[in-house]
Design goal:
Two copies of one chain form a homodimer. The first copy, chain A, is an alpha+beta fold. In chain A, a hairpin with a 5-residue loop joins strand 3 and strand 4. In chain A, helix 1 packs parallel to helix 3 and helix 1 packs across helix 7. The longest helix of chain A has 26 residues. Chain A is globular and about 50 Å long. Chains A and B meet through helix 3, helix 4 and helix 6 of A and helix 3, helix 4 and helix 6 of B.
Chain lengths: ~230, ~230
């Protein structure tokens, strides 16, 4: 069975590969996670020529054995296969513009399990206030709600939805149910993208399937940090 | 004249837009630099809706008035227009893998003028030792020297050449002529990409034309830092 599936190598958790997982799901590319547990497993993977181009995970192994490193290279690969780059050069450029903005905004999500939760949420709140007005303006300028670019789903929508979702999870886990809707209240267009993407059957299936990991708050976050440290040390 | 040209808005120097300039040149897209000098100019640009998507430069204004932010979105736009993404999805994915590695490696080049030069070179040397063996292996695996991906020029080659070039400039400016060739000596495949790209007529023309800025060492770096601070404050 597994030889028919693409394999996504990473740690036991979300981290830098989470956007790749959303992208693979949205592109309807079947995949399975291969989660590293020990430094020996990681060393073994590093030793095979052509597996880890930069000696790091995430890495996507395609069914034909080809390996692709770098989370955003994996995202863009899924985007091309799933035809989620919009129509023509101009929409592709707009999609890239949104993706790069998301990368700038998303740092506090990545560092969340490695920091004090309240401090991480404070940084996340700052990031929301800095970037979400820009995303609202981009969606408004596109004038085809809920889409950020063009008149159909693109990876820009998918990763905006992921950012909204992770932000809600971080705030809810730290300050309770009200916190998320309070912080994201002023950004109805981003919330509409989120709602639209979450209702897609392929995303519903992903979020209820084996490729979904819980947000790294509390004990989940502690276990994830220990896993990363064990594998890399 | 200027209405026929794409305009690249940034500070008076290299910084984050330098890769976009190499990409535009390699893609043979005529462009001119619009260099900000005052905070009033920047504020004025921020006020026009649709100009700066994230309230920051670089921004590329196309001849039709469309504006595109984010340096790597500009790089990828030039890449598509110039057909420098290779052939097919697999080569495009390989190109992205190289571009993301370059981004990981390139931090010390960006921060160079904002740091002590010797400290910056020490970080740069560390980055070369960490990433250049990976680039050598990728070029070797591709088996069509000097190209990093496929059998013709891609943006991966262009931005690898830019990285080699900036690295040589940083080391030469700080430690003299020998330092660059000493550090890059063990990486003949990267040096071959650099030599190949530098010999392209469009790159020769770029490097000898008005869109070329000197490496930000010494007084050039000090002037650049003052320019950035003046515009942003």
């Amino acid at each position: 069975m597994s030889s028919d599936l693409a394999k996504l190598y990473y740690f036991h958790g979300r981290g830098r590969v989470q956007q790749s997982r959303w992208a693979m799901a949205a592109a309807k590319i079947p995949f399975t996670n291969v989660c590293l547990s020990t430094s020996a497993e990681f060393a073994q993977l590093c030793e095979v020529p052509g597996k880890l181009s930069y000696g790091q995970v995430p890495m996507l192994e395609l069914p034909d054995g080809q390996c692709l490193s770098q989370s955003m290279a994996i995202v863009r690969h899924a985007t091309r296969v799933g035809e989620l780059y919009g129509t023509g050069h101009e929409e592709a450029a707009r999609v890239d513009e949104v993706l790069e903005g998301i990368q700038d905004a998303r740092g506090p999500i990545i560092s969340f399990p490695f920091m004090n939760a309240q401090e991480a949420c404070s940084r996340l709140h700052g990031s929301v206030q800095r970037f979400f007005p820009c995303f609202e303006a981009l969606i408004e300028r596109n004038a085809s709600p809920p889409y950020a670019v063009g008149t159909a789903l693109t990876i820009a929508d998918v990763l905006l939805a992921e950012l909204v979702h992770s932000t809600l999870e971080a705030l809810t886990a730290t300050f309770g149910d009200e916190a998320g809707s309070q912080v994201l209240g002023p950004f109805p267009k981003c919330r509409a993208v989120h709602a639209h993407v979450l209702a897609l059957p392929e995303i519903t299936q992903f979020m209820n399937g084996p490729n979904w990991f819980a947000f790294p708050a509390g004990q989940v976050g502690k276990d994830y940090v220990r896993n990363v440290q064990t594998v890399l040390n």
